[in-house]
Automatic annotation (TrEMBL):
Keywords: Membrane, Transmembrane, Transmembrane helix. Belongs to the drug/metabolite transporter (DMT) superfamily. Plant drug/metabolite exporter (P-DME) (TC 2.A.7.4) family. This is EamA domain-containing protein. It comes from Micromonas pusilla. It holds the Pfam family EamA. It comes from the Eukaryota. The lineage of its organism: Eukaryota, Viridiplantae, Chlorophyta, Mamiellophyceae, Mamiellales. Residues 1-30 are annotated as: Disordered.
């Protein structure tokens, strides 16, 4: 979502741990600790989440809601030790504040669950490039919703959102005529880009916008794992319930039930990667970045996901034309135009941050 290097970055001195390192500089017995720059965390997070589409495609026979639930179940397990550590370090006032934030945590988790459920469902019914392009439309949706709700929207934001929206519409219109096909392996049949899968991916983008906006309110006053674990656990529970209600778990392709991934070596390998890579490094990095960047900056950074994810998919053979040639040029051109439009928004954010620093 826009070039990551255009995203404004908090200075190293404002990042947790930097002041401690400076204070300990005179203590020879303790090595100097250097904080990881927030931009580096965000960049690693974007690359990690970009690999998720290919991993999900490795389990084509598992129903979408169940597969999304598996991914979040494993991520919850990975996040739990950090949650215990944060809970032990929290003071009584902090714990009371965390309890008061429970409704917002549930809302954030529900949005996260809806995002993954709709995205994996869309990913199984459309091509990888189309799915990633639409699921990363969050900046467009945020700008449009702000205008509809009466909030002031700058001309540059409106132009960026308009250009991106035109690209999205043209990509959707192109789906049934020249869609990109994928034929990853013998277990995965070719999937043509469809308007149905594209609509599901747009719904996933709406859900992610809600998750980011709620998370932006919670993260500054909550430790990383104290926020990420409950939200992820709620998301996994919502998807497990939705999968059971829809009958996915009991169907022939039910994948072994609500926790069937632990009984299949292949599924366990894929799900564990999703938990550690896109889950811990990816979404964990995004949650950590919410403490340093505003919601629109995060959304803009994540627009790089289609480009990176599509490149990974092409390299793995998951997103090529049916005749084996290069991807459909029209989708690539329109997708590049949509991604390029978000550069306008990221440039505006950079200028705004510079003006604030000058005033200080």
């Amino acid at each position: 979502m826009g070039e990551a290097r255009a995203v404004p970055v908090a200075s190293a001195s404002s990042y947790p741990g930097a002041s401690d390192a400076d204070a300990d500089a005179d203590d020879d017995a303790r090595p100097r600790r250097r904080a990881v720059p927030p931009l580096a965390i965000l960049a690693c997070a974007v690359v990690a989440v970009s690999s998720a589409a290919v991993a999900f495609r490795a389990l084509p026979d598992v129903p979408p809601l169940l597969l999304a639930s598996w991914r979040l179940q494993a991520t919850s397990i990975v996040l739990f030790p950090g949650f215990v550590r944060d809970a032990k370090r929290a003071a009584a006032d902090d714990i009371e504040r965390f309890r008061a934030s429970a409704p917002e945590l549930v809302a954030s988790g529900a949005c996260l669950g809806a995002h993954f459920g709709l995205w994996v469902w869309g990913l199984q019914t459309t091509s990888v490039p189309h799915s990633l392009l639409f699921v990363c439309s969050t900046p467009v949706l945020m700008s449009s919703c702000a205008a509809l709700l009466g909030f002031p929207v700058r001309a540059r934001d409106a132009i960026a959102a308009g250009v991106a929206a035109v690209g999205v519409i043209l990509i959707a219109a192109d789906a049934n005529r020249r869609g990109d096909d994928s034929h990853a392996s013998s277990s995965a049949s070719p999937i043509r880009a469809t308007w149905y899968g594209d609509v599901l991916s747009v719904g996933a983008a709406f859900a992610m916008a809600g998750h980011v906006l709620v998370g932006r309110q919670l993260r500054p006053r909550m430790p990383l794992f104290a926020y990420a674990f409950p939200a992820t656990l709620v998301a996994a529970a919502c998807l497990a319930i939705a999968s059971a209600v829809s009958g996915e778990s009991s169907s022939d392709g039910g994948g072994g039930g609500g926790a069937g991934w632990v009984r299949s070596p292949r599924a366990a390998l894929v799900v564990c990667y999703l938990a550690l890579g896109p889950g811990l490094v990816g979404h964990g990095g995004v949650n950590a970045s919410l403490k340093h960047f505003d919601a629109m900056t995060i959304a803009l950074a994540l627009t790089l996901e289609p480009a990176i994810g599509s490149a990974i998919a092409y390299a793995c053979g998951y997103a090529v034309r049916r005749n084996g040639r290069r991807p459909a040029r029209r989708s690539a051109i329109l997708g590049s135009a949509r991604l390029g439009s978000t550069r306008l928004g990221s440039a505006r954010l950079a200028r705004r941050r510079r003006r604030r620093r000058r005033r200080r």
